[in-house]
């Protein structure tokens, strides 16, 4: 008990010092970053554990330890690892990076916690047309974690002191609320633009995928209309201008015309 209280006082004291020198704690774009990378990892671990527990209790978490899910994870990991190993991530070696599948065919969404724990709903995988689209959406979510958008958005929404209490395991009710709302977390326009751009950069780095895969997903959703479109669009709005920006970046990098064999992707869809 004493050690935990001391740790909290130490962290809050360090935070007070940090707030007094915010100008020195910024990212490359000049945005304030109060959480350390270790804080990102600790918060992400807590949120991922809570998320796992929530979906496990509903029978919706496809467990990696279940042999019946082994092939599905092998196929999905192949996509994720190509993106992670593109050579373009800032925190490829610092964050743990993993992906889990949530069995919900009605939800077409994906999200990532701080520290790189990625969740993909079966409804999204089944909605997509090809593997480049899947890689694009996953790249977008990886960018939110790798560019530390998620922790920065949570800082804005909940405040640094509350998040530190969650990191220290002192606020389980708030942890449950954060975990429950992560899939609906709305990012700023700048964060979304940056995640789109880095999705293109990551896919280009794979040397494998058509790097405007995310645009293909947006175009399909846009054609179907907002009323019947995927949940992903509720937190990633305005696909029209974003499609143009993604395609412009992809054309600049000359990586739009890669043809990918989609047999593995089709097998993944069939397994789910």
From TrEMBL:
Keywords: Hydrolase, Metal-binding, Metalloprotease, Protease, Signal, Zinc. Transmembrane segments: none annotated. Gene3D superfamilies: Metalloproteases ('zincins'), catalytic domain (3.30.2010.10). This is Peptidase M48. Belongs to the peptidase M48 family. Residues 77-248 form the Peptidase M48 domain. GO terms for cellular component: membrane. Residues 1-26 form the signal peptide.
